[in-house]
């Protein structure tokens, strides 16, 4: 069975974000095909997509390599998020479906419950799902794609401290959903902008000055089971 290129792309991107591949390291088609148990054709297509997204660069005499973004580029990502997430929330207030709203309310309910109990283990994942669903609710595939790429890149370049007051943070999530549910685009935009601004100081560069790097990927890593990759 042929593994779709977008599944290979997801797997490679996730490994880059997780630090499996060192920044600047080569990504040979042979190594990736062996690791993910696929042919070189979907690997080649995946690398082209990841290069367009900014995770991979092609270097003369080296081929495909993991990108090495600068601190300025990393800072620009947070600025872009400050502009695009409020826009996405405003659009979601006008274009969301009842299915989107149901999921958003469910995530807020779970997040607020976990926050009140002091159970922070699930809050990071719940927050990611919340913002992913909010982005999908905006009714613009282009904007959704940009927001998704931003989240991936920020997760790659930054570690994010847990909010000092998770109850307050999830109250803000709830206020965003309330505005979206009422169709109040301006209020959704304002609350999301405030929420994003408050979260900004919690972001710390993973590679300040380019001095810190994750362990280099080992070519002896076992193959990845692609059957569980999200499409």
How would you explain this protein's 3D organization?
With 231 residues, the protein is mostly helical. Helices cover 62% and strands 6% of the residues. It has a two-stranded antiparallel sheet with strand order 1-2. The model is unreliable at 210-221 (pLDDT under 50).
Q: Tally the beta strands.
A: 4
Low-confidence stretches: 210-221
Tertiary shape: globular
Radius of gyration, whole Å: 19 Å
**Structure annotation, total helices:** 9
Percent strand equals 5-15%
Q: Note the main sheet.
A: 2 strands, antiparallel
Query: Pairing-aware structural class of the strands and helices?
Result: mainly alpha
Proportion in helices = 55-70%
Give the helices and strands, then pairings:
Elements: H1 5-17, H2 29-36, H3 40-53, E1 56-59, E2 63-66, H4 71-95, H5 98-117, H6 123-136, H7 141-157, E3 158-160, H8 166-182, H9 185-199, E4 203-205
Antiparallel strand pairs: 1-2, 3-4
Helix pairs in contact: 1-3, 1-7, 2-3, 4-7, 4-8, 4-9, 5-6, 5-8, 6-7, 8-9
Key features?
two-stranded antiparallel ribbon, mainly alpha, 6% strand, single chain, two-stranded antiparallel sheet
Brief digest:
The chain has 231 residues and is mainly alpha-helical. It has 9 helices and 4 strands, in the order αααββααααβααβ. It is 62% helix and 6% strand.
């Amino acid at each position: 069975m042929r593994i779709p290129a977008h599944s290979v792309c997801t797997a490679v991107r996730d490994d880059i974000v997780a630090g499996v591949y060192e920044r600047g390291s080569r990504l040979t088609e042979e190594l990736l095909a062996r690791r993910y148990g696929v042919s070189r054709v979907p690997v080649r297509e995946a690398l082209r997509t990841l290069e367009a997204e900014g995770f991979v660069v092609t270097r003369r005499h080296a081929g495909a390599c993991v990108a090495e973004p600068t601190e300025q580029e990393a800072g620009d990502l947070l600025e872009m998020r400050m502009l695009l997430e409020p826009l996405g929330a405003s659009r979601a207030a006008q274009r969301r479906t009842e299915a989107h709203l149901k999921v958003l309310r469910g995530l807020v309910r779970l997040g607020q419950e976990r926050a009140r109990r002091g159970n922070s283990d699930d809050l990071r994942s719940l927050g990611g799902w919340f913002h992913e669903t909010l982005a999908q609710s905006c009714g613009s595939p282009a904007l959704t794609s940009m927001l998704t790429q931003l989240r991936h890149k920020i997760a790659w370049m930054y570690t994010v401290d847990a909010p000092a007051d998770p109850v307050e943070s999830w109250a803000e999530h709830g206020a965003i959903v309330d505005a979206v549910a009422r169709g109040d685009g301006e209020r959704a935009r304002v609350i999301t902008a405030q929420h994003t601004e408050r979260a900004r100081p919690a972001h710390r560069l993973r590679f300040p000055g380019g001095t810190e790097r994750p362990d280099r990927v080992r070519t002896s890593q076992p193959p990845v089971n692609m059957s569980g990759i999200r499409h």
